[in-house]
């Protein structure tokens, strides 16, 4: 009953309440972001949601759009600013996702919405994680977040969708708040500014060929173009 009915209702009112309570913080971060990033403080990106319907996830921008002489974006570690690192370390960059929850694209708790170019490299079993709304936080986030392997992250996602309960979600929320704002742990992979894409991980581990990697990237671009 909770999973199929009350969860969405609770998510809606939790997101609405959080937006109202945190509106001063949202306004301040919006203004600071516009100054620090020299323009639009928001970052939007296509992500696969429930039933693999692609939606636009909204976050506060943490990286600049600096490019090289050829017009290509510079590496993430170059574009990630000190202000952006602060937002990530406190998870404040995630706050705009409250509007995704309000809209119904996401839930408060669920598997984290991965990139479309990650989804295309998942097995049919792993893609079952998309049978529910993706979450602001989830079981994988409180058990290592980006500090654990892709296999572990997806396994936690599959464990979560097997047994979704109210008290289970409450426990994940409390653990998330503790990790994000008190311990400030498990934010990124060790010695990395951003998490490695699933396709890159599989390619480097020799789990897929270059041809399979290229084909997956083409498919991801096609899915995004069709959204």
Describe this structure in words.
- This protein is mostly helical.
- The chain has 10 helices and 4 strands; from the N terminus they run ααββαααβαβαααα.
- It has helices at residues 2-21, 23-36, 76-79, 82-90, 97-103, 116-119, 150-162, 166-183, 198-204, 210-225, and strands at residues 42-48, 54-60, 106-109, 134-137.
- Strands 1-2 form a two-stranded antiparallel ribbon. It has a two-stranded parallel ribbon with strand order 3-4.
- Helix 1 (2-21) packs across helix 5 (97-103).
- The longest helix has 20 residues, at 2-21.
- The protein is globular.
- It starts with a helix and ends with a helix.
- 32% of the residues are buried.
- The model is unreliable at 187-192 (pLDDT under 50).
Structure summary:
With 227 residues, this protein is mainly alpha-helical.
Strand order of the largest sheet: 1-2
Sum up the overall morphology in one term.
globular
Secondary-structure class:
mainly alpha
SS elements, strand count: 4
Query: What radius of gyration results from the CA coordinates?
Result: 18 Å
Strand content: 5-15%
User: What's the story with the biggest beta sheet?
Assistant: 2 strands, antiparallel
Number of helices: 10
Mean pLDDT reading:
91
Helix content: 40-55%
> What distance lies between the first and last C-alpha atoms, to the nearest angstrom?
31 Å
**How are helices and strands ordered from N to C?**
HHEEHHHEHEHHHH
Spans of at least 5 consecutive residues with low confidence: 187-192
């Amino acid at each position: 009953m909770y999973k199929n009915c009350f969860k969405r209702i609770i998510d809606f009112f939790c997101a609405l309440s959080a937006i109202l309570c945190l509106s001063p913080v949202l306004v301040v971060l919006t203004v600071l972001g516009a100054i620090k990033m020299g323009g639009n403080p928001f970052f939007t990106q296509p992500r696969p949601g429930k039933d693999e319907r692609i939606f636009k996830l909204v976050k506060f921008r943490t990286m600049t759009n600096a490019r090289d002489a050829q017009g290509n974006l510079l590496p993430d570690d170059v574009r990630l600013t000190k202000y952006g690192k602060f937002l990530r370390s406190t998870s404040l960059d995630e706050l705009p996702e409250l509007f995704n929850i309000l809209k119904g694209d996401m839930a408060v708790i669920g598997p984290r919405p991965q990139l479309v170019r990650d989804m295309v490299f998942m097995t049919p079993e792993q893609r079952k994680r998309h049978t529910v709304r993706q979450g602001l936080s989830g079981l994988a986030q409180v058990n290592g977040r980006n500090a654990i392997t892709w296999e572990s992250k997806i396994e936690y996602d599959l464990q979560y969708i097997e047994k979704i309960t109210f008290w289970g979600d409450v426990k994940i929320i409390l653990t998330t708040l503790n990790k994000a704002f008190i311990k400030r742990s498990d934010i990124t992979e060790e010695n990395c500014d951003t998490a490695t894409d699933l396709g890159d991980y599989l390619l480097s581990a020799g789990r897929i060929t270059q041809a399979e990697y290229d084909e997956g990237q083409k498919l991801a671009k096609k899915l995004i173009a069709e959204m």
